[in-house]
Amino acid sequence: MLTFGHNMLKSFRMNVFSVSQIRDWDAFTIAHEPIHSIDLMERASSAFVRWFCARFDDRCPVIVFCGMGNNGGDGLAISRMLLQKCYNVRTCVVKHSPKGSADFSRNLERLESLTAIEWIETAADIPTLLSPPIVIDALLGSGLSRPAEGLMAEVIQRINDAQTPVISVDIAAGLFADMPNAPSDSIIKPTHTVAFQCPKLAFFQPQCAEFVGEWDIVSIGLSEKYELQTPTSYFYTDAAIIEPFTKARKKYSHKGSFGHALLIGGSYGKIGSIVLSAKACLRSGAGLLTVQAPQCGYDIIQTSIPEAMVLPDWHWRINTAVPNIEPYSAIGIGPGMGQDPQTLLMLRELLTLLTSPIVLDADALNLLSKHPDMLTILPKNSILTPHPKELQRLLGQSWKDDYEKLTLLRDFSQKYQLIVCLKGAHTAVALPDGSIHFNSTGNPGMATGGSGDVLTGIITGLLAQGMHPTDAAVFGVFQHGKAGDRAAQKCTQPALIASDIINEMRW
Ligand SMILES: NC(=O)C1=CN([C@@H]2O[C@H](COP(=O)(O)OP(=O)(O)OC[C@H]3O[C@@H](n4cnc5c(N)ncnc54)[C@H](OP(=O)(O)O)[C@@H]3O)[C@@H](O)[C@H]2O)[C@H](O)CC1
Ligand SMILES: [K+]
Predict the structure, then answer these.
(1) Among 99, 100, 199, 203, which has the minimal tally of Cβ within 10 Å of its Cβ?
(2) Ligand 1 proximity of 176 Cβ (cutoff 6 Å)
(3) Residues 177, 282: one domain?
(4) What are the YjeF C-terminal domain coordinates in residue numbering (predicted)?
(5) Which of 17, 31, 13, 11 lies closest to 223, judged by CA?
(6) Are residue 215 and residue 267 in the same domain, yes or no?
(7) Probe ligand 1: pick from 39, 74, 217, 224, max atoms within 8 Å of CB?
(8) Does any domain span residue 149?
(9) Integer Cα distance of 454 and 477 in angstroms
(10) 334: region left, alpha or beta (phi > 0 left; psi from -120 to 50 alpha)
């Protein structure tokens, strides 16, 4: 067996902070850089304007809707900067409070010297958005303290009704950054959110998708020291993860240097699943691969993947035999495997033999759900790759919203000391230390049969090469999505099939 590498993740991840941490980060930067808060607002607004001008030229009329907090202050500064760049800008301020924040008021003075501000004090003051301009939403940001109501809700509704691009500054007005909204809440549905410095937890929740749109992060130079010293359990995996894991192979390395993976799966009518896992496993760099499959898969696998060895089960249709695990540096089990009682016996016995982490997917997960006692015999740091339905079965319960889902996911991962990759847009990888890593790659074209089998193969292949299980899970998920993004670029999202993901794998 190869020994597992060190967990390298710690140095290559972006923190996702709570609203109160973001507020502290802001204050820490102001105190320690030091910088005046008005200048930090100026920096944030310029970052937004750079983003904006790179996408929309000055022929696009712009209307900026501002609240009276610091998000509104950003909006006023953005208006001024766009006016100075000769954009055609209208600025409307919703009077939701008797007094604006200090930096709002400073920016109001600065803007008033350049243009007239339109105040919205009643519904009658809301401008008609007939010939659609681009709307910039600076109504409410991370300081949202209650659902938007009354006049504010009316403005939000009007903006949502207009068929026009809406760009939210930092976060959509009305959307809580790190807790659930009620279904009836009034929230901007932006085409794009431009967030300052780090993503908000809401950006990763399926239930928030229409209130986030496409999103980008712009840096506003908040203190690196604060970021390093402030604990969080949420992280975002972006392209920075690639470099540390992409090393040139040593000149005198041989296939034995890259591990020997064993994949177990397939059943009559579902041999394709294990074929996809096998190809992905080889492409992920595993030196050798053996596939254990029922007899009916023998010819199929030998023909479609000549690079793999096959261990045929004595059974024609299903997997029943417990393999000798000695030769293998990592094992992945489940794709297309079926849930026959004899397969269950094999899985149970296999688990009792294991001393190092294993990758479990699909029917292996369904069998675990039906026989949860097996969860306790899984080696620590084993990797499970459920989709939300499979997670529900594993937990034996559903969730009331996506935030509760994350809590249940974390509790499960910590209770059994397992790594759980919850597949979906922004796949969430929960680690036994309680941290959750959201992925940045992937696209809806990957919601296609066999895509998950490919992921199982990738992670098993990385594990076989000696990567630490947490790295194999987080990095494997990232590379799977990256390959899917390349595939979608080539053949479009609807035409994408799982084999395309394998063909686009690069390291
Ligand atoms: N570090 C950074 O990322 C920086 C962020 N900046 C920008 O600042 C905002 C956050 O600003 P803040 O002033 O804290 O909050 P808001 O602008 O979102 O709103 C606060 C005011 O709005 C009132 N409020 C809250 N909820 C509602 C509601 N539902 N309806 C009406 N009014 C509401 C709130 O009133 P309270 O009664 O709760 O006190 C405030 O009056 C961030 O998103 C960024 O855009 C900085 O510019 C740079 C650094
Ligand atoms: K906003």
Answers:
(1) 99
(2) no
(3) no
(4) 238-507
(5) 31
(6) no
(7) 74
(8) yes
(9) 10
(10) left
Same domain, 275 and 153: no
What's at 480, amino acid-wise?
A: H
Q: Do residues 497 and 430 share a domain? A: yes
Q: How many residues does the chain have?
A: 507
| Residues in the 5 Å CB sphere of ion ligand 2 | 71, 137, 141, 168-169, 173
What does the alpha-carbon distance between residue 314 and residue 296 come to, in Å, rounded to a whole number? 10
Quote the pLDDT of residue 252. 81
The number of the ligand nearest the C-alpha atom of 137 reads 2
77 lines ligand 1 (CB under 6 A): no
Q: Can you list the residues of the chain whose pLDDT is less than 50?
A: 1-4
| Cα-to-centroid distance, 240 and ligand 2 (Å) | 28
CB 310 less than 6 A from any atom of ligand 1: no
Burial of 95 (0-12, 13-18, 19+ CB in 10 A): middle
Distance 35 CA to ligand 2 centre (A): 23
Task: Please give the ipTM for the structure prediction.
Answer: 0.97
Task: Report the separation in Å between the CA atom of 219 and the middle of ligand 1, taken as the mean of its atom positions.
Answer: 19
Whether 96 and 216 share a structural domain: yes
Pairing of the two strands 428-430 and 419-422: antiparallel
375-421: per-residue pLDDT in tens? Answer: 999 999 999 999 999 999 999 999 999 999 999 999 999 999 999 99
Q: Could you tell me if residue 236 is inside a domain?
A: no
Containing structural domain, residue 106 = 23-231
Could you tell me if residue 244 is inside a domain?
no
Same domain, 306 and 342: yes
User: Can you give the pLDDT at residue 5?
Assistant: 54
Which residue, judged by its Cα, is nearest atom 30 of ligand 1?
148
**Are residues 171 and 263 both part of a single domain?**
no
CA R_g for the chain: 26
Residues 179 and 267 in one domain: no
Tokens read off for 363: 């029917």
Phi-psi region of 491 (alpha: psi -120 to 50; beta: other; left: phi over 0): alpha
106 close to ligand 1 (CB < 6 Angstrom): no
Q: What is the DSSP string of 355-370?
A: -S--EE-HHHHHHHHH
Q: State if residue 196 touches ligand 1 by the CB under 6 angstroms criterion.
A: yes
Q: What CATH number is associated with residue 313?
A: 3.40.1190.20
Structural domains counted in the chain = 2
CA–CA dist 103, 161 (Å, integer): 31
SS3 233: coil
Domain boundary among the residues 197, 231, 265 is at 231
